[in-house]
Batch of 4 targets.
Target 1
Amino acid sequence: MTRCSQCGNDVTGQEICAQCGVQVHSELTAPPRADAAQGPSDAVANDPDAPEIPSLDRALKICLVEKYCNFQGRASRKELWSFVLTTLFFSLVLLYLARLVLFDSDQQDHCLSISDVLALYLFLPTVGVVVRRLHDVGFSHRPLLFLLGFGLATRVVLGVFDDELDAIFGQLYDDAGPMLPNEIKLTLSLYRFWLALIGMNLALFLGLILLLCWPGTKGPNKYGPAPWKRP
């Protein structure tokens, strides 16, 4: 028995409901809506390279093993932040334990060595997952390269003026003696320059964080299919 979706009347074998006049055949034979909630298409589901929305341990395995140095495709927000926050937490715990073990010893410099090795090991997978996350939003790797390049240039510039900056803060905070008017102008100029560089780096970093938190494009884009949660 087939009933009308509007009034519930029995419309078996009828094209129009005798009670409310609704056309029945269009309702019975209408194809499913294209925007109806459906799982991933077979083409995506059968693609071994299609990205996924992983669990926490799965995100670590993807970034550290399967895609350690992979800058292609897309990555979901969960993949990125699961990896970044988890590795940051364990890195801080490891360095804290290393400091406890080496506290008040002549081997304190080993903490720096551990930090350098850890940063070197995590650099490539971190850059890779950030690039894939930018792809998911629809951006290329250029925002990340610009941020890294500007940050490196800032370090170089501040290194050139390292002695001058030390003198500035020494005179400002150590009461090194009276300053001549020209020295005051130079001090203020370098101090403003230093603040401007730091402020621009911070603004660029916050802009990148905003992009990494932005929802990915729906459906496939030029970087590949959209991430989906596998059963």
Target 2
Amino acid sequence: MKAVVLEGYGGTEQFALKDMPKPEATLGEVVVRVRANGLCYHDVIARNGHFPRTQIPGIIGHEVAGEIAEVGPGVTNVGVGDRVLVASQAHCGTCRPCRRGQTNLCQKGGGLYGEERPGGYAEYMAAKATTVLKIPDGMSFDEASLIPCAIGTAYHALKSVARLTAAETILITGATGGVGIHAVQIARLLGARVLAVTTNAAKSDYLRDFGADEVIVAPDMKFDQEARRLTDGEGVEAVLNIIGADAVSSALKCLAFGGRHVFVGNLHAEPIQLRPAHVIVKQFSLLGTVIATLAELEEIIRLVDQGRIKAVIDRTMPLEDAVEAHHLMEEGKLQGRIVLHP
């Protein structure tokens, strides 16, 4: 099979297009014919070596949709030809988090696809059968590939972690990116008021089209004063911080008393400075999350199928153009996701 292999940590010169052995379905596994793989900034960070579990050499990519090409022994939930998406992380199904339905917290299932397990920058990918979910006939593979991470991360962060309600205001950093533009939609779906932060004024109308009530243009990531002005000095009840360290100072300053700050991304690996007294006095909650549960992914499949959440795709590109795709992502000029087609 054709695959883009990450041969070492560093720049895009570490990618090599190769012919690799097609995976086989072992006990409890399936082989997916990859039709679409969403490109996540996580892939860029993994390529640069900031996720030490990323296998070298290895195949990255964790936003996968396609068709079942082979089923292994013991698999009964899907059959050859079924159209599916693959949850971003494998889970064991038996540990305490899994038994509670918190499959996103499992540490015994084999890890994230594209890190501990080969991912979707390839024509075929092996996956645990418990991590594949069927998709409706009317849903494209491109749309489905965004559900596990780009949409799923935002949905879990807002609904389950931030516990956002209709009476609240949320500020979203990195709002035009793959997670951000879906977070804007989901926050509106939950009934909240949405303040969207972007570094580019030209993207303001785009954000409003997807549901932002207010757009804050902040190339320097200093958005706290404007956020406080827009909330009559009270601040926002929640911040969804997709940028990470570069935005955390303003994010904490614009939080209301008792506010929740949720980290879902960190574009750069630098540590942050934090004053514990600030957290104590204002009674902040500092939270973090990565992916959605299987139950949440099933909910999202229904919402996307009903048109209540729109999967936002900037462009599609052939797998062979993975290097160019990474450059485009690092330049920060995208509106939504790039989807690779093996």
Target 3
Amino acid sequence: TDTSGYFGVDNSTGANDRPYDTIVLPADGETYAADVTCSFVIFDADSDYCTAVVQYSINAGATWQTPTTTGSLSNLTTSPQGLTKTFVWLTRADLPDTDISTIRMRITVYDAGDSGPADTTQNFRIDNQRPAILTGVRAAADLTGPDTGVYLTWSSSSAADSFGYYIYRSSTTDSRVSSRISSIMITDTFSYLDTTAVRGDSQIYYVVVSDKMGNLSDSSALWSGPNPT
């Protein structure tokens, strides 16, 4: 007697039941930025393996585009009760430095025989817009009192959703090689005392603005601060 391995029969009538899905995230009306974790539930009465096709629209569904994602969207297990799947949408690859409130996502799932109806979200928002470069940055040596160093001041950010500031320092005029010297985001003042500066050197300081979504501005206009001697 020869026995086969496991195989499936869709149902007693021989017909294929179409899979379908329900999007859980992104949620309608919410705001997201950068790497967005998305999730959806696949239902299939036949428990077939499925492939998911994901698309997004920036014009309320008039046209659709393919997002840049990580995570598997093929060979997905299913069940009649539904199984949750996740992937990550790298929104800054598709929508850099933008703020759009009419984003929609749709997901269609396919098994070997058929596709199900697409599930489509209503509008949610992607905010990848960076705050403007900060102005008014100044640095000067502080030689008085118990704490000496380089004292920085700057003007408040013009961004309506600005949240805080990071301080960077470099020995060159290239902000790309600078190092962050503020251990935490500065949210309650527009000044910073760098007590770790080496005496006798001159450093270039940069201030970077962060908004509430974690978007960072380009480096501020540089200012050379002579260290106390």
Target 4
Amino acid sequence: ENLRQIYIKSRKETKLSLGNTASSHSKLIYFQKMLEKVKFKGIPSKAIELESLYWNTYLNEINSERKLVDLFRDISERKINIGIITDLTAQVQMKKLIKLGIENYINVIVTSEEAGLDKPNFSCFSLANEKLNPENKKYSYWMVGNDVTKDLIGAKVELEAKTFLVNYPK
């Protein structure tokens, strides 16, 4: 429990110091800070090991519901482009999309790592628009997200998107 509290404190400190950036989500940095706090020797190898264990466990535990894959396939078959706008790093988010079985239905991905800042920074939404709509035609966007501020407001303001809030158990 003590180590868990040190990890939580390290995560909070990282988020506070790095702000709304992809690196503020870095489990590697959280583990590095945690190990430094407990005066652990061999921090680089142990931090990498812990980060790898964390993400491997996470990816082994997530499962796609058949309905999700069916939905993405149906949207794609209707020739509707699908863009993913997400916080965190590209590598982790791409691994999640592969694991969920929806990678083949996605036209573009924008991560906060690529855009420079987390949502709701408008650059995330503008970059998605540039990728999906290079001719800058009048497109109609739908944004489905689980956070009013980070997902829906940014999409509504930047893309004039019709927005949908989805709540799912955490």
